[in-house]
Amino acid sequence: MTEILLRADAKTPVARSALGGIKWRGLLPYVFIVPPVLYLAVFMFYPLGRQIWLSFTNTRLMNPNRSEFTGLNNYERLFADPEFYMALQVTVIYSALAVILGVTVGMIAALALNRPFPGRAIVRAVLLFGWACPNVAASLVWLWMFNERSGVLNTIVTGIGLDRVAWLTTTQMALPSILLVTVWQVAPFVMLVMLAALQSVPEEVKEAARVDNADSLSVFRAVTLPHVMPTLQLVSLLVAVWSIRRFDIIYLLTGGGPIGSTSTLIVKLRQVAFENYDLGLASAYGVIGLILALTVAVIHALFTRHRLKRSQQ
Amino acid sequence: MKKALLVSAALAALAGPALAQDDVTLVISNSQWLDALRGEKLWAAIKAYEEVAPNVTLEQSAIPSKDYADRIMTEFGAGQGPDLAIMQEGVFYSLADAGFLVDVGEVAASADMNGTIDNAVIDGATLGIPWQRAVYALIYNKELLDAAGASVPTDIDGLIAAGQAVEDQGVIGFTSRHQISDFTGWFMDFQNWAYGYGVDWVDDEGNLTLNTPEAVEAVAAFKKVYDSGIIPVGDDMPTQRTRFKENQVGMSIDNSGGTLNIASGGALQSANLGAAPLPFPNPGAHQQIFISISEHSDHPEEAAAFLTWLVSPEGQTRLREASGPDALATDVAVTEEFAATNPWAPEFAELAQNSRSTLIPGYEVETGQIMRSVMEAVEEVLIRGTEPSEALATAQGKVERMF
Which one of 3.40.800.20, 3.90.1170.20, 3.40.190.10, 3.40.50.300 gives the CATH number of domain B2-134+287-348? Predict the structure, then answer.
């Protein structure tokens, strides 16, 4: 069999007769692409289509198969609800800050790890822990750390002579606390990807810049950053989309409170679906989240096109 | 309805010839299976049924309490789920409203049921059997209160004074749910404060009334206790209960199930735990748990036969041994041994005489949705310092738009 395949690869007459020749080779890409297409169709496109359809119906959690088409009714309810605008605002702020902080911290860590020093492998493994840790377990550990009376964070805070901080129970601190956990989880992933990108920057180009008396900052701005920019944009897109749909950390730490200060679209979606049993309205929340994620993806695509155009000029 | 007929047929068969002896597995879902100690005891109690019906195997579906309602309703909505579900009253009413529960009227008629069955009867159909009724009381650590020189409080000012005296000993004065992240538990606990100050949530015509003077008073009382500094702000309920177990908490308002949990397996000796009426002018609430047969079960006859055993004297005695002081479907007293080692238990039985359901009459299915608005108002009062009357008026406006 192996011999036949090798011959087929060599485009010999034997191969054509044994495996269908040119026809078979033409079909090969489709054979490879069928499994992922099937996977996406079953696990992504169908649920997505179903969710969009549900947002135009009055489907209830308890009677998902007995619903009626209600047109834009769910969207009218959504846009008339002040809580929707608050959830949208929280989602945008949370996602934007998660990208800015997560990518910045990850990038700094990657730059630090890009140069050799003793124990680098250990430091890299330790920094990856946040990303490798399951979200639920991480959230529960952080819940203990945030505990006002006995949490380690307040032990440190009171140890340096400050008052205890209400990390999760005040509107001022809840979102920053959740962002802290998010950055702790996201930054290692950014670091890993950016480290790979940094290691692909040609050393000779950097060396040439240094020969021209460029300092480290100039080398970074003129050589390194442009080289890793495509990766940086892609990783920012991923972090943004993950942040828009992040649920577990927020739900476990604050449940969307206090007073809705951490209630993102996805947290609100759960409340509408499972407390009010209103799958139709919950689906409308989901569709808005989807539009938000698509908007970010379009912005990324525009940036990429702009960059390609500039590089061609 | 078809399944109800099958249940009747099963009961007739129980009375006469034996059921067909095909091997059957009944899946029973419950969040309590995951409770330390209590879960094992409850499971062992009902597992005894396999001796009575050797062809039946009981299988657990253990779901964490925080996820229980979401998961069980999703499963039932999708036409799946366990054969029997053990659930809080709110979930029970939602599933009943959707027509997913089998009428077990004949099972109920086979035993000498007490008043706990009343809430299981909806539009003339008995859609579940009471599993346990957990009433709320003020519980306290006797040694800590004695050491602080505090007496058992009978009103809010007394609660704050006793709590602060206990705090002075370096431990926590009083525990209570107080965060929206534990919404379901918090709203049920808060009903004690509401009922304690005479709140009804609906008027004589059945209209929702969230901003009554009684409700304002209840929220103001909760705020006063919250502001006094005796509540460990930020602690979730499992943490609070663990602290109580470890002699780190002076007082709490908890139900009999939670109290049994606190009295078992920790540093706190059960004999050192006291229970008293709630420090409010009126009686408080109870959490009712039902066990029901799913309309989607492939074995409704066997499930009905199991429930018939459960409400029999043998089944109830077994369940009593694992249920502590909770009221059961029939009046079966706690054992003398249990009463002797748990002196706090009789107070719960006394309080169960006048306690009220946590659900809003006429709005049982929508109670969660309504109480979400109430608890968001309470949050506003606690965190932003909004006037209770103003916050509750906002909540009233919200539910008027909803219903």
Answer: 3.40.190.10
